[in-house]
Amino acid sequence: MNNSEQPTVAKPLGWDFSQRLLRFLFALLFRMDVRGIEHLPERGPAIIAPNHVSWFDVIFMAGYNKVPPVTFAAKKWDKTPGVNLLFRHFGQAIFVNRGAPDKQALMAAMAALQAGRVLGVAPEGTRSHDGILRRGHDGAAWLASRTDALIIPVAIWGHEDVIRGHWLRLRRPHIHFHVGEPFRLPPEARKTRSRDLKPYTEMIMHRIAAMLPPERRGIYG
To answer: Rounded to 5 degrees, what angle do the CA atoms 31, 35, 38 make?
Structure first.
């Protein structure tokens, strides 16, 4: 079955209401600059690849995605009452062990893509905190190369210090949420060994960096 024949991903109970609530709160608490959300997919296999600045990234992604993406979450959240239910219900979370390669989590992510799901993967692997793009890891490129998944780059900025830098000063932060043109890795990526994936990771990172202001592109500037 090709991508155009894949059924639209089913939405969990309460997804549409939660999105409307989030967008109402966005309008109330932020000044949102949203571009390119028409590129967000309704079906997979597709990988949404954002930069990762803070936990607000997850909230913005939930507010604008057309369908709930499968997400990675640290194993510790699987043991946190309430939070684990939210991750499982709305994020269909794959819980991973931080600090070491988690092959079981990668296999679960590959299975989700092969089933036509949409996966959210931050190639940096961890938060940058200051909004400057960090070096990408090869997980997203590995999954895309093995599944021929569509890749949708996303750049988010302006929310590095929302609470102390803006809300406590009674200011509404200006948040940018930009979605880039979807693309696929070239066919030869499918035969690339895991240790040789760096050029394809760089390809993904440069797509994200191109949407960020120059001072936030880090090594990809």
So the answer is: 135
Q: What percent of the chain has pLDDT over 90?
A: 52
By the 8 A CB rule, do 177 and 221 touch?
A: no
What is the spatial distance between Cα 220 and Cα 136, in angstroms, rounded to a whole number? 10
Go through the chain and tell me how many residues it has.
221
Beta bridge partners of 73: 95
Cα 155 to Cα 210: distance, rounded to the nearest angstrom? 9
Among residues 139, 77, 132, which one has the least CA distance to residue 102? 139
- The confidence score (pLDDT) of residue 3 equals 46
For residue 54, which of 166, 154, 140, 156 has the smallest C-alpha distance? 156
Query: For the chain, which residues make up each domain, given as ranges?
Result: 12-220
